[in-house]
Design brief:
Elements: H1 8-29, E1 41-55, E2 58-59, E3 67-74, E4 78-88, H2 101-106, E5 120-129, E6 131-133, H3 164-170, E7 202-204, E8 206-208, E9 213-221, E10 252-262, E11 268-271, E12 288-292, E13 295-299, H4 302-308, H5 321-327, E14 331-336, E15 342-346, E16 352-363, E17 375-398, H6 402-412, E18 419-423, E19 427-433, H7 443-450, E20 453-463, E21 480-484, H8 492-496, E22 513-518, E23 524-530, H9 532-539, E24 548-552, E25 561-567, E26 571-576, E27 585-589, E28 603-610
Antiparallel strand pairs: 1-19, 1-28, 2-25, 3-4, 3-15, 4-14, 4-17, 5-13, 5-16, 6-7, 8-15, 9-10, 9-14, 11-12, 16-17, 18-27, 19-24, 20-23, 20-28, 21-24, 22-23, 25-26
Amino acid sequence: MPLSKALRPSGALIVVALAIASCNKDFHGVGANLLEEQAFNTQSVRVPVYAYQDATEKVQADGLPLAQLGEIHHPVFGKAQAAIVSQLQLTSNAVFGNFSQAREDALDEDNIQVIQENEQVIAAYLEIPFFNNLKDSDSDGVIDAFDSDPEDPQSDTDGDGLSDLIETQSGYNPLDPDSDGDGILDPDDEDSEFDQENKVYQIDSLYGNRAASFDIKVYELTYYLSRLDPYNNFETPLAYFSNRDYVEEGFTGTLLHQSNYSLNFDELRFNYQEDDPETTDVDETTQVETRLSPRIRLPLDNRFFQESFVRMEGQPELDSQDQFNEHLRGLIIQTENFSDDLYMLLDIGQAEIKITYNYDSYNLNDTADDTNDDTIDRLEKTYTMPLGGVQINTLKNTFADAAIAQQIEQSNAGIPADKIYIQGAQKHARIQLFDPENDPLEEELFRVRDQKWLINEANLVFNIDPAYDPVTGGSLPDRLYLYNYKTGMAINDYVKDQSLNSDVKNGDKFIYGGLLEYDDNGRPKSYKFRITDHVNNIVRRDSTNVTLGVVLGANTDFIAPKTATLDALRGDIKYPTTGILNPFGVVLIGSHPEAAQIDKKLCLEIFYTEY
């Protein structure tokens, strides 16, 4: 039961005092019986750390390297929902058919092929690809996820006696012992006319039930998304935040798509539209012209793109990107009514709308001097319009455990946290080494400075709360990220670490750490950060003892700080982009836990050589 307001301050002092005493005991106990005659003696010590829980009211959610879409429930962090808002981009001059609208209107006495083309939209599709893993370490044509030996090109994944590499080079399917399905195994088949079926992809970054169905809607956006900040004389980019719901605010125009949808993970294949008359032995309409990776693919309202785009050929609205964004302001993509949890991280950088239209084309039929055989043909073209410019994720989180709010209130009162809640875009922690607020004289810092120590290694180890069940608790973050809380920038240990690990997703800079670690039984255990340089700077070089921040480490390639708002009273902070890229979370043991968890509390471990 929470302490009453009246008792909380005095209770907090007791808790803090006990925790400090506990860490002090660790400090003085280690190395107390060193032999004086030893010239060097390697030891370790645990120094107090102070952790404080915090949360964001909103985060800057534009310009992210991916888009979140969907809904997922978490037993501690509640329900997370995400929608997408995006502008559209002109890829080239908006000329449809063979000639510009100006030439069509003026005609051309010297060129009878210039006619009114009467363009008409016949199909419009929104496509948003999934991320997929096509890593093929041995370059044998079989991605590692399906390769029986990803390091050996001579491996035989389908067990038909031919290596994966030989099958790929010969046009066979290395994942099927009978590539053409005629009952004869590939090594014995001398007459195989194998038509390459769908490529096999390992779809990445989808969480929950991939077979879940859901309602999906695509709206026209009627809110103008300015690229530049009008409150700063249009001199800097305008930030857009995660808490705005443009549907609830009424900024919706035409409903472009509505359906109950389930994901399809098949490769998309499109055959040639016409048969080449010069190749009599092959019917090109049976041949694949285009292959696309698996993706969300939604038909949009043809009439909308006819009236708002193709019909506007030659109008000022299509003369420049800025004018176009003022005219056609973008899309809103929203999901709801899920049959089960499904949360998608999508490759928004490759998302696009494909608008297919037909038009009249004057055909001379290779007889320029004879108009008797001329025809007007109805041809087909596709205009590709990427999603781009200003792109925003609307992120909502509801029904979180009340214990989180209690920890935030306690931390705001200066009381260190017994539990730490880390969640993407929502919850983070502040970490103070040698905390001047709880240790005004910085006695622990001076004690460390007074020792004759060469600090070899310093680690912060965040242990996962055993009361939190990672099996039923949803996806645990693969990584956390530790940074300078005031600036939002990386600490020296991150910058200096050039270690690479291509075998583990998001596994680079593993010396600096933050990666999820497991116990001997394969259960998630902890996250460890090696901050040796940071601690040496404080202890030996008198650097400022800055507050550190801990957020989700979804992808530590993207650490540039965004803006986040804590609340109306405390204002904005710098928040690393990586902390925004998915909604997952973890509960950690804090720096000042209950007695039952005291052995797993957050402390700074210093390994040193005494001289």
